[in-house]
Amino acid sequence: MTPIPTKQRKFTADHRNKTDLNIYTEDFKGDSIFGIIKFKAPLKWDKIIQITALHLVFFYGIYAYDYDNHIFYTTIWSFTTGGIAGLGVTGGAHRLWTHRSYKANTLLRAILMCCFSLAGQNTLFDWVRDHRVHHKYSETDADPHNSNRGFFFAHVGWLMMHKHPDVIKRGRQIDMSDVLNDPVVQFHQKYFIPLKMLLCFIIPTIIPVYFWNETWEASIIQQCIFRYVSSLHFTWSVNSAAHMWGYRPYDRRINPSENRFVSVIAMGEGWHNYHHVFPWDYKAAELGNYKLNLTTMWLDIFAKLGWAWDMKQPSEELIKRTIVKYGDGTHPIYGDQYHDHQHVEEVPVPKDDDTSNLIIYNRKSE
Questions:
Q1: Prediction pTM value
Q2: Fewest CB within 10 A of the end CB: N or C in the chain?
Q3: DSSP structural state of residue 292
Q4: What does the alpha-carbon distance between residue 356 and residue 344 come to, in Å, rounded to a whole number?
Q5: What's the rounded Cα separation, in Å, for the pair 54 and 193?
């Protein structure tokens, strides 16, 4: 391959292995704003402008919205579409396609794909790849939204900057064959833009106008701004707040935490310490009820319909032994006088040079 002259190089984001990683790494230099605010990575100015503009419109919408002529049905519709979109992210992109914590028939996969399109996020391929890398190299430079770089970076800043070379390197090593071989995902990849525009913005906006005579302005503000921006932040909070604040009853050595607030707004995704220890559990939590885990409720309904099966869970004994050996002592189990301190063979302590483990632990001083 003929080397590209330095002056002709253009710093581009990785897209399906098209970027030369050596050139990408060599050109990876931190940007600064007015020479005052310095960053560790090159900035994506197009994303910065888009995200900033979206939030400026959001705040303007709060000011300009016609509250006097508000139609209650429109708000109910916004919560409904927000919940459907959330299920596409939590039950679809996350628990099904990323972690394979259960199996689903073609009908359910198609429904979840449409729900995910309603959320208006990245393609399923990109979402799954980034999340698998996140789990395998959590809180390292290979983590797309490494929370050790601060709340803002983990929440939204990582979308405004080019990925660290380690993220791309490790992302290329992730096995994505199962995702690429799924006809539903193939359809989503092929028609990503039309699906996103149609299901996230156009249809949700049209329905209030034609079914209960909502104004176009109010419908656009509620669906394309209020609901969309809110759902983005609900998803982002799992990467930020749930990696920084909360208890660690299952493994005190890692950043992911049990965050009740995130669990409420993210439909059960805030029980994050548990999830990073047992990522294959379809519940993404140890909870036995649905009060703070609506995603699990829907998955159980689909299982009863026969649309979902092979719902994976760790044994109660494994959970107990993991709590006792690695937890921070905040789990209610300590009130049950459980004192089995056996070594947990099912959850081996990873070696420092072993990158094959699902989780790279962030060891903290004890």
A1: 0.84
A2: N
A3: T
A4: 19
A5: 18
Alpha-carbon distances, residue 134 vs 88, 149, 196 (angstroms): 19, 14, 24
Give start and end residues of each alpha helix (H) in the chain.
21-26, 45-64, 72-87, 106-119, 124-136, 151-155, 165-173, 177-180, 183-190, 192-196, 203-212, 216-220, 228-239, 260-265, 272-277, 294-305, 316-326
Q: How far apart are CA 137 and CA 117, in angstroms?
A: 27
Q: What span, in angstroms and rounded, lies between the C-alpha atoms of 301 and 320? A: 27
CA distance 338 to 333: 7
pLDDT in tens, the chain (366 residues): 444 443 333 433 344 456 788 888 877 887 777 777 788 888 999 999 999 999 999 999 999 898 888 899 999 999 999 999 999 999 999 999 999 999 999 999 999 999 999 999 999 999 999 999 999 999 999 999 999 999 999 999 999 999 999 999 999 999 999 999 999 999 999 999 999 999 999 999 999 999 999 999 999 999 999 999 999 999 999 999 999 999 999 999 999 999 999 999 999 999 999 999 999 999 999 987 788 999 999 999 999 999 999 999 999 999 999 999 999 999 988 765 444 433 333 334 444 444 333 333 333 333
Domain ranges of the chain: 15-335
- Rounded Cα distance between 191 and 69, Å, is 37
Partners of 103 in the β-ladder = 309
CB proximity list for 137: less than 8 A, separation 6 or greater: 143, 166, 170, 355, 360
Q: Helices 45-64 and 228-239 meet at what angle, rounded to 10? A: 130
CA distance 61 to 344: 53
Structure tokens belonging to residue 214 = 């909502």
Q: Which amino acid is at 4?
A: I
DSSP states of 184-222 as a string? HHHHHHHTHHHHHIIIIIIHHHHHHHHHH---HHHHHII
